[in-house]
User: Fold these one by one.
Assistant:
Number 1:
Amino acid sequence: MNALDALRVHALAGIPLGLVTGLLLGLVARHRDGWGGYASERRRAARLAHVCLVMLPVLSGLYAVWLTGSARPDLLAWGAWLWIPGSVALAAALAGVAARPTWRAALPLPAVAVTAGAVLFAFAGLST
């Protein structure tokens, strides 16, 4: 499977999964004190995990469209290898922080991976 196909699969599988997690989060969020109240760090982390699960696959789909015909398939492949596992790991790390706030140390590595993937996509897109 090439990088564009991997990005498409990530989008097609990730968007519904992210939407389902939003429904599940709604079961807890409808309670006034769910995860410590509206402004709590735990609830913010859970909301960010949901956003990651929806929007990063959306961006994967957009990158797959935007980068079709890229002159730098090597950058595209490296970007996909950083972006897809990084986005899954970032959502998982944020969910972990929602469950146990002391797990914050798990956030930087997937955040850097997603950022590096986006930078590589930008370079792949600019070199067309």
Number 2:
Amino acid sequence: MTAVPRAPTTVLVLDDHDRLRRNLRALLEDEGFLVAEAGSGEEALSIVRATEIDVAIVDLRLPDMSGNEFIAVAHIVRPTLQFVIHTGTPNYSIPVELRRFGLSEESVFIKPISDANALFARLRLLGGK
């Protein structure tokens, strides 16, 4: 009996810094992830509404809404969506309301990411693939 291949984990990269977002997308695609990207919270919400995304990598400081606000709204739009925080704030603490969505310290990655393999593993775990 042959195993049925699993579909790749789909990831949304939400970051307003174009170069960082594109570099992260390329890195993830090289690892076999299917990747969409957005430079604003509103753009990301449009993608979440229209596309099956497993995990969103979310920057906290965005031009139109905070990453925390995006997560709260995106969770309502797509309750199965999982999240990873990607922030330059080393002392970031996950708000209580976001912990209810399953966010934990294991899902917080500080920029620049020092261990890409840890990020890949977290994305695969959260994506269930």
